[in-house]
Structures are given as structure tokens and as C-alpha cells.
Amino acid sequence: MANNVTFDQRKPVDFAIIGSGAAGGIIARELSTAGFDVVVFEQGPYRKAEDFTHDEYDVIIRDQLLGGGPRLSGQTFRHDEDEVATSPMIQPIRYAQTVGGSSAHFSANFWRFRESDFIERSMLGPISGTNFADWPMTYEEMEPYYTRVDWEVGVSGAPGPFDSFRSRPFPMPPLPVKSSGVLMEKAANKLGLHAQNQPHAILSQPFNGRNACIHCGHCMMFGCEVGAKSSSLAAMIPLAEATGRCEIRDRSAVFRIETDANGRASEVLYYDKEGNEQAQMAKAVIVSANGAETSRLLLLSASERHPDGLANSSGFVGRNLMFNAHAAVDGVFEHPLNEYKSVQVSRVIHDFYETDESRGFYGGGGIDARPLWSMTPIFHALEGMPHDVPRWGAAWKDEIAHNFTRQMSFAVGTTSLAMDRNNITLDPNNTDQWGRPAIRATYRDHDDDLAIAKFLEDRSMELMDAAGARKFWGHGINLSNGGEHLLGTARMGDDPDASVVDRHHRSHDVPNLFVCDGSSFVTSGRGQPTMTIMALAFRAAEHIAAAAKANEI
Amino acid sequence: MKKNDISRRRFLKSTGALGSASLFRIGVPLLAAITQSACTARDEEAAFKTLGAEEAADFAAIAGRIIPTTDTPGATEAGVIWFWDNALGGYFDWLLDDVRELREQMIASLNQPFAELSAAEQDAALKTLENDHRFEYWRQLTIFGFFGMAKHGGNKDHISWDLIGFDGHHGAWTPPFGYYDAQAEQADGE
Questions:
Q1: Residue A21 lies in domain
Q2: How far is it, in rounded angstroms, from Cα B38 to Cα A480?
Q3: Is residue A5 part of a domain?
């Protein structure tokens, strides 16, 4: 699709939006349909549905959608700040560089937050050593925006016993149950738990002129080849472009937001596809680049007036990084499950969502049934084998051959606590392929994060036993060494000393600078953040458009 | 003639003979099929791009023990060595030195080329290296070549996908997908 409009770089456009993902794509659609001119900057290329493949080596191993892997990104990781961060073989901070951002390659598990998620600090009290806080709004205020995501982006599902209230039903029925879901139901019934339908940002039937899912089995980490995944690429950006007011400027890597003499954001500096420096003037700038890239860009935009980085008078830019802790239990069954077909998850257990103080630690989470390692062959051979099997040779090969179609996982997604020590900073030694200082992540899970992951791993072992697995094993609870959920690093809040943006995503420091993406999160939810990122984007765009129309930016 | 300028046909001739010898030793009756598949694996006249013939013979043998030929095909039949050659001259070029060094370290203590050892001797030699991080590179290259798409050099005729029951080129599915959801569907219908 050719861009239908190109804006003059020297004439201030109404909005420069940095990032085309879950948040940026929605904000672009909302502002362009409201009559504003927008330029969306995306550092990756403009791939369409037909450009996505099932090539596991390209996509998962060579990080095709991630921008080419750690040797190009230069990203580094360490657990503690007294270590020198190093660049591992697997990219530590994993997000897609392609139009649509990570909404193009995510698994599309799509939970709303609950009422409690927004007010946990009030419910549970302080947790020492953390920046645990309430959100500046409630579920009641968010609900209409969740409903807009359901109906405008496209969500399949059916209500579950613990769901928060919804003002409208799901727009389409859930996706069909898989063998893993049937086995989870059987196990949950035995144990007195509740296996409910997993909601998806994937179309179970044709919707808004888009195709329904064909169950090809390549959702997690892959782009959807038929546009059934409700990414911003499939659902929002075509609508934005159709207004004639939205330019998607792909292969454009922003490295600085310039401010003028009044301290207002005035210009976006970026490298074009040839690597040449370019600039776009803008009346206002919206950063939706994800929790890692947003932090880096604000830190890179330091100036005399903003010595610690743009919008960072609080010092909170880059801090409070939350990955969501994870765990997984694998089981092998007598008969083929063929989990490589269809979407990842069809059933999920939310009985352990809420913090239960009798457990002695903060946190909760969900357990879902999915192929995980048994999704694709390389992934299965690399990560999916039981620990008591040799790592090479005939016995290992036989295990792979036997298990691939018979194996499934109970996967756990849980909470992370916001802490100063977990953060994104600029690596002092490494640069990325464009020459920008590399993203450096410093992260050590809170003990409570590990405790809830262990608690849910134990529950998953019980479930696997109850499901009748012939053999099952846990993958163990390990410290996070990277993540896909990039949350909390420019949190929203009413206090300018303890947050980066206000309740409407406007920077406390720079009046025409907005930040909306996973970095806005105050708490981590339970491991499926994208629905809330999209709801925040609808809400932010509404306030930004109203402020612009009232000349209040 | 440069080290790499050996044709694939010559390479196949040399390793084919050795391969058959070791296969006879482990008593696998697949020789004809294997020789056939290896000879047609790739463009036989093309030279390896990255690897020299001797090291390629050893690496092919290493891959052939990581995913051995049993009563089902392994890395040899999948042509995994051509994946190694592609990958080590491309995306994984930064592993090439490590990959080579570990082989040199290994063969220094051998009295004959690694590729000419018996399978049991090869396994014993590899066993001493399995905790070396460079062995993990060998292992991963073999996994990628065996299970990845054939266009990357290995997985000839999708033999690994047939082995595990993955129909990777089938683009769309309809329920039921597996045994247990089919069973549940049937129960619901009754």
C-alpha cells in the first residue's frame, strides 16, 4: 500500500507519533479521523499480511521481525547495577520492528485488567522497597475504552466467572477449543477450578471487512498472513491512512526529540532508510515506542533545560521496568494433541488472579493451556525437552519425534513489582545499527514475583497430573533475563515527582509531549498487557484531540 | 585451488563412502536411500561457500551424531551440513571461529580424522565436549538446519517434519485439531 500523503518536513505537522504499534497505531487512527495531520515514525519496514511467513528460522532465530537480533541492536542486560551489562545470544528486550509494532507479532491473548488492578495499593497497602502505587483512574473509567477495543479492533471471546463487568458483550464468539483446552477443563473440573474461554485479539469470524482466523498456528512471534490478528497493522492503520491525513514513515529511526527556546517539543530527528539524518517539525509529539524504546528516546533527548532526559524531572524515565514473571509446566499425553494447529491458547484459569495475603506475598496470575514449545519444530527441539533426556543423540531425537504432537504446556503469567533497580538506561559502550546508544536493561525480579510464579508452577503441576499427562515437568523458576512486556518506565500519575505523565498521558514537564504505551503502566497486571495498552491509547487520543481542539496543547 | 574450491560432488563422494561404512557398523538398513538422498541433496557441482572440505566432513559427522540416523533419518539425510555452510557464512558468521576452534581442539587428540571414527568413538569424543559453550553452537546449528525450512540448506524434502508429524506447509486447519478435542466434540454431539 503506497502512502497516500507525504507531509513537508519543514512545516510543523499537527502530531508526530513515534511508534506504530498497539498504542501508536490506534492514536494515529483516532487523531487522523478527528481531522489532524499525523506522521507516524516506525523504525522497521512496512510489511503487510502477505509479507509474513511461517519461516521459523527467519522469524524466531534470525529475529526478522525484531530488527535482526542482538548484534544489530547492541542491547545489553545485567541483573544488578554493579555488573557490566553484556550482550547475550538471545535479544534480551524483544519487540517487533515492523509497522504494527509488537501487536503484529504477539500471541494475541487479550485480557482486560480487573477493577482491583487499578487500586491494588489502596487494597493491600505499601510494599517496602517498591514503587507500588494506584493508577490515576479506575476500571470504571477505563471500561468504555476496553469496549471500544473489543468492537473497533476486534476481539473474540466469551465471559468468564471472574471477569470485570463489561458494558457490551464480545463482538464475536471465542475461537474453537484445542486439545490443550479440553485437557485443562478436565483437570480444572477435578480440582474445583474454572477453565474459561481465552479472549483473543484474533477474529473468530469475518469482521469489519477483515478475514477470520484460518488456524494456521503461527501467531506467537509471527505476523498474521491473513490479517485476522487484530494488530494495529490490520485493524487501525488502514483506517488512519484512508483519512488522507496519516503518513506512515517506515524505516525511520528517531534518535532525538528537539525542544525550542520555550521548552516545547518542536522537532523529531531521525535516520531515514539510507541512514541519513532527517528532521520533521511538529506542533506536538506523542511517544508510543514501547517501554524500552520510549525510555531510550527520552533519555537521548536530554538538553540544557532537561539535563536528565526529556520529561524526566522526576527521574522516573526508564525506572520501574516490569516484565511480568513467567513459569511453565510441560506434559506429554498418550494421543496426539497437534498443538501446532490454531492459536496458542483456548482455555485459561483465573482462580489465582487476585493477591491472597494468606500466601504471604504479593501477586497473582493466570494459567493457560497452550503448545508453547510445541508450536514449531526448532522451538520444540531447543527448549521443549524434559530435563532428564540427554541434549543430543538418538534418545533425544526419539523424544522430539514422539513428543512434538503430544506435548502441551500450562503457561503462567504473573505480576511484577515496580522498583527503582529494574530499569532501562543507555549502554555506555554499545550502540545499535543506527549508532544510537544501545538499550541496557537492568533487572532482578522481586522475591514476591518469584514466589507467585513458583506458587502457580506448583498449581500447574497439579493440573498436569489431573489432566492425565503420561509425563510432566516444570521448567523451574529463574530470574528474568529479558522480556517482551515492557511496562512501567514512564508511568502515569498525578504527582509530578513520582510519575512522568499525567492521567491523560501528557508529560508533566513538556506540555506538548505525550507518552502512551506499556511505559504508562503503574502496575503490571497479570501478564497480558496489550489489551490495556490499546484501551489506554483510545483514552489518551480522546483527551489529546479534545485538548488540541481547545487550543490547550 | 583454494581450500573451499572442492565441488559438492567430490565432497559427497568422500563422505558418502565413510557414511556407508559407519552405517553398516550400526546396522541400519537405509544405506541406498541415504546415499541417494545425499547425492541429490543440493547442487552437487557447487563448492561450499564457507567451509573447507575436511572440516565440512567432520562437521557433517558431528551433526550426524547430534541427530543420528537410526531407523529414521537424521542430520545426514537432511543435508544439515549445507545449512551450516550457509549460516556460518551469513547470519552466524560470528560463530565461525568458535565453531572451528572447538573442532581443532577435538581433533588434536585424535589419531585419525573424526569423520572416519566409528559412531561410538565419535560419540565418546563429543561427550567430552558437551559442556563447552561452543558445543552448544554445534547443537543449535544442527537443530536449525534439521528442523528449519529446506530453503536454508537442510531439512531436505522436509524429512524432519515428517519425522515429528509437523505439516508445516499446510496453511490452514479446521477443528478438531487433535485427539482430545475431537473426542470432546463427539461427546458433545451424543
A1: 13-549
A2: 43
A3: no
pLDDT above 50 (res B100): yes
What would the pLDDT profile of A177-200 be if each residue is shown by its tens digit?
999 999 999 999 999 999 999 999
- Of B175, B174, B172, nearest to A182 by C-alpha is B175
Give residue ranges of A with CB < 8 Å to any B CB.
54-57, 61-62, 69, 71, 176-179, 181-183, 214-217, 225, 333, 335-342, 376-378, 380-382, 391-394, 397-398, 400-401, 404-405
A265 grid coordinates: 517539543
Closest CA to A39 of A27, A51, A48: A27
CATH assignment at residue A143: 3.50.50.60
Residue A185 lies in a domain: yes
Mean per-residue pLDDT of chain A: 97
How many Å lie between the alpha carbon of A484 and the closest alpha carbon of chain B?
23
Q: Which of A56, A214, A400 sits opposite B148 (nearest CB)?
A: A56
Q: How far is CA A54 from CA A290, A456, B171, in A?
A: 25, 32, 9
How far apart (Å, rounded) are the C-alpha atoms in residues A515 and A502? 9
User: pLDDT tens digits, residue range A482-539?
Assistant: 999 999 999 999 999 999 999 999 999 999 999 999 999 999 999 999 999 999 999 9
* A368 domain-assigned: yes
In this predicted structure, what is the pLDDT of residue B171? 82
Write out the three cell numbers for A218. 503461527
Residue A240 belongs to a domain? yes
Q: How far is A181 from chain B (nearest CA, A)?
A: 8
Sign of CA dihedral A518, A524, A527, A532: negative
> Based on the structure, what is the number of domains in chain A?
1
From A329, A372, A351, A325, select the one nearest A463 (Cα to Cα).
Answer: A329
Burial A444-455 (b: 16+ CB within 10 A, else e): bbbebbbbbbbb
- pLDDT at position A296: 98
Q: Which cell numbers hold the place of A23?
A: 498504542
| A423-474 per-position pLDDT tens digit | 999 999 999 999 999 999 999 999 999 999 999 999 999 999 999 999 999 9
The per-residue pLDDT for B46 is 58
